[in-house]
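Support request, please re-run this one:
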Amino acid sequence: MRRAALAVLLASAALASPAAQPQTAPPTFRTGANYVRVDVYPTRNGMPVDDLRRDDFELLDDKVPQTIDEFERVVIRSAGPQETRREPNTIAESRQAAVEPRARVFVLFLDVNHVELAASRRIRTPLVEALDRLIGPDDLIAVMTPEMSARDITFARRTTAIEGFLTRYWWGERDRLNFKDPVEDLYARCYPGIPRPGDATAPDQGIAQEMILRRREKQTLDALEDLVRFLGGVREERKAVIAITDGWRLYERNNALARPIDGQVPTGPIIGINPATGTLGTRPPDSTGRTANGDCERDRFALSQLDDATQFRFMLDEANRVNTSFYPIDPRGLAVFDEDIVPAAGVGAGINANPTVPPAEDGARLFARNTSLRTLAEATDGLAVVNTNDLSRGLRRIADDLSSYYLLGYYSTGKLDGRFHALTVRVKRPGVQVRARRGYLATTEAAAASAAAAPVVAPAAAANARAIESALASLSTAGRELPMRLHASAGWTPANVATVWAVAEAGRATQEDWAGGGQADAMLVDASGRTVATGRAQIAPGGTTARIALTSSTLAAGEYQLQVRTKGARAAAPGSDVLRISVPTAPQAASALFFRRGPATANRDVPTADLRFRRSERLRVDVPTPAADAVTARVLDRNGNPLPIPVTAAVRDDPDGSRWQSADVSLAPLAPADYLVELTTAAGRTLLAFRVIP
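Re-run finished. Output below.
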């Protein structure tokens, strides 16, 4: 029942109809001129350091110092109510959302075969509380178990379904008494551990039990290895895996498991004379019920040769290469013994069938499990919650550890050689420890040339040229210094309400007038001179922009004049500007809102009417839309040729009822020039021009 419920949860928690969605291959990353992003987690005495500057960091690529072009501190804000978090609609959309560098990506790994029933119940409340506190509004989380393929996981922003499952079900199965897995049941029938008449112990005593335990550990390690590889293709930035598990013994070769039984070594089916037919063949079950299944014998030999310790080390190396950190949690708390009185996966009959584990051996097993979890965390820059009954405190430490970080971006001076490049990040301030990705896989010269030569996929050439020319026309005043800049976008909300969004921005000459705050008033006037909508916004002290929304029940598609009047607290006289704008028919949109983020904005997204940006900034464009269709985005040069620059595209719902197709891009890889952001949905595409200046 628990496994069935968990399967339903994992299949349906994130997507409304995931079965209908095609499986998509993990995306690959192409970054022009080896532009590399690095997320850095500096701490002092275990607490995040939040006041570092660009000059405090040193970044080395294969031991060669690099110039940091992009610098941003990311602070995770509270997620707010579950119903306000917009879920991805498709698998592809969830994977695209995971690429956003300021969104964190989590996977909750429930190691069902290495957690007891009571322990899964014990972890329920602190884990639910931690998830609610940990997951931010833009973060994504998926759930995985050892029985799943990593390609089956789906990312979601809401944790309601996960919390509901953890509350309703006890999912731990390490100490279950019956075998639900048909392979485990087969092992129990092949090696029942029943002594023959006159014998004190069975020749196969303990074999099925060890085979089952080894297979369970192998399943878990294979699943984690699969997950690490998959996450490496999801995104470059850090991925966090919260693993709920007792840990692992990391089995090594054991020739005793492959010992002969009745003179037969486990290399294949046991051969003998079949008394029913008198012919040579596979021996049938004897009077004790013992069978001679060839699959069992092959598995017995294979499981006896396991080297889980080596596989574990390889998995840690791969996790470091793909920037994946583990946060393992032992839900037992402060465990005294590893085994219960009734051994896990016990098989057989009689007092000696599954003897109690001696205290010294039990202590060694417990130590091995705890060590495996500590090693998993330490080797991947995570944290382990082990040997503590205060699970809530341990989970709070994980939340604090991931609450803020820094994003660094740079042009690598290394070669485009397709090889792994080691990264080193240091902080000049004494006493600060730094955790950052260990390296990245560079692209090749051939791949970079292929990307640069990629043909433009667009409508007919003439129509495409006109669309590009029209978009670039918006930059006609970009080089002029004006007292005030005005920019606007028009479109429709999901409630089918026409709205105009205006952004007024002070020019250099008037910024001092706005330093003490102020007010901006706007109105829309139709062709007859009638005012059909008005709006007002406050200018924050020290701010330079005001964003105003104008809407009314009488606002319809058509041509309008937008009039904006501003009054700064320190201005001798008000300022004003006028802009003509068209409100298109639903569901179309006119233009978009532009946002900048960088050192000058204290790393906050600030609306702007100035379409000039610096390479130290990030650009976000928002196109209003009433639809929830998935959106993709890319950067084009002024001739319409696509550039290999990573762009994050998503659909976002705002609290005021508006919905936006959004694209976010770091400008550090771009040289000074004019560019276009292309957003594409099933309904068509939108071209938006911007300029990068020195």
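The mean pLDDT is 82. The longest strand covers residues 558-568.
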